[in-house]
Design a protein that fits this description.
The chain is an alpha+beta fold. The protein is built from 13 helices and twelve strands. 42% of the residues lie in helices and 24% in strands. Helix 6 (135-181) packs antiparallel against helix 7, helix 8 (225-235) crosses helix 10 (262-278) and helix 10 runs antiparallel to helix 12. The relative contact order is 0.07.
Length: 382
């Protein structure tokens, strides 16, 4: 079917008589959007509520097929035909949620009720559609759901901190004991040191999460981002080697120190790096780059992490920072890593940009504003 989206269509004869159907008062007074169209989908009425919802005046739409109000991909998928079939089967379609287009190009969520208009012989001569804008209600429900999830995160952290802390102390204590019994040149020394570092990192992470719950101040110190990145890659070296992943570093030497909590910055980078590594189970390349970046009059530190792994499908890309959202199997992830990363970046007034597609890898760019307290590296060296 060909959709005429931009021109008015007047060639089709119509038996739709609005005066006879007494729509004048309803069109004038209804707070909801009301569109009346004939059996050829040509708009014959467009009330004030519809003007407010869609951004068009009635003069702009009368005589046009209504296709320009529907996203093109929904037209291609046959949404018009499906709605038509449901209305024809029942004579009426109630409270159906649809996505439509505003004049400015934005998408709006609407509650649709569509009914047949019949002549004296019971023949369908047109349809009326009543729209109610529920975009804000849906966004509010999303925010409410997110708040509930965040509350669950706080409860989880508070309840598990003690249990995890006890287990970590046992692991670290036994590792320290074994390490003291080994000679310095033992091939197991590095592995034990890595275990101890992992315990320290987990303990610091739990501390960070508890600080988030209590809203206490962090330990803000000057940080060398390049040094942190190199330390993290060394920390992950065994897993990187095991999965046959090559690493490529492009660390800018003259970027300023960043004022922040080291554990938090490590957590931001570690979560992104781990996701990249897990996205390349059969090998690949992990690229890490840092640079200075100017944005909206502010200097930023850019940390970019790229992989050539499996990529992220478009339909879930917008959900990756939600708490408890994960595509991994049961027992393979709690869905908190990227949520924590996003939350920490926002606390530093920064932002994250993610670009990905299935089979095309993933690129994550983290922008952290330097701010007025940044220490210039050259001045610090003096």
């Amino acid at each position: 079917m060909s959709y005429a989206l931009n021109k008015k269509e007047t060639a089709f004869p119509s038996r739709l008589d609005l005066d006879r159907l007494s729509y004048r008062d309803l069109l004038k007074n209804s707070p909801d959007g009301l569109i009346v169209f004939d059996t050829h989908d040509i708009i014959h009425a467009f009330n004030k509520g519809a003007e407010d919802i869609f951004g068009y005046s009635s003069e702009e739409v009368l005589g046009r097929p209504f296709y320009f109000l529907i996203p093109l991909e929904l037209l291609d998928k046959g949404e018009i035909q499906r709605l038509q079939e449901m209305v024809n089967a029942n004579g009426r379609l109630e409270r159906c949620y649809v996505t439509r287009l505003h004049k400015n190009g934005s998408r709006i969520k609407l509650e649709l009720t569509r009914s047949q208009i019949l002549d004296e012989q019971g023949v369908v001569i047109g349809y009326e559609c009543v729209f109610r804008d529920v975009t804000q209600s849906i966004e509010f429900e999303k925010e409410l759901l997110l708040t509930e999830k965040l509350s669950a995160v706080e409860t989880l952290v508070s309840g598990m901190a003690h249990e995890l802390g006890t287990s970590l102390n046992i692991i670290q204590g036994h590792s320290d004991l074994i390490l003291t019994e080994l000679s310095p040149d033992s091939p197991f020394s590095d592995s034990l040191k890595t275990i101890i570092q992992a315990c320290d990192r987990m303990a610091a992470l739990m501390k960070t999460l508890l600080l988030d719950v209590s809203r206490r101040e962090r330990e803000i110190v000057p940080l060398d981002i390049g040094e942190i990145i190199r330390d993290l890659l060394n920390f992950l070296r065994i897993q990187i080697k095991k999965q046959n992943i090559k690493t490529s570093l492009d660390i800018q030497d003259d970027i300023p120190f960043f004022q922040g909590d080291r554990t938090q910055i490590e957590e931001i980078l570690l979560n992104i790096m781990m996701n990249s590594i897990q996205a390349m189970p059969d090998g690949g390349e992990l690229k890490v780059r840092t640079a200075t970046h100017s944005e909206n009059g502010w200097d930023h530190i850019l940390m970019e992490i790229k992989d050539n792994g499996v990529g992220i499908p478009l339909e879930i890309l917008s959900r990756i920072f939600e708490p408890f959202f994960t595509t991994k199997g049961v027992g393979k992830g709690a869905g908190l890593g990227l949520y924590i990363t996003h939350n920490l970046v926002r606390r530093y007034k920064g932002r994250i940009k993610v670009e990905s597609a299935p089979g095309c890898g993933c690129s994550v760019s983290i922008f952290l504003p330097v701010g007025p307290y940044a220490i210039n590296r050259k001045e610090d060296d003096r």
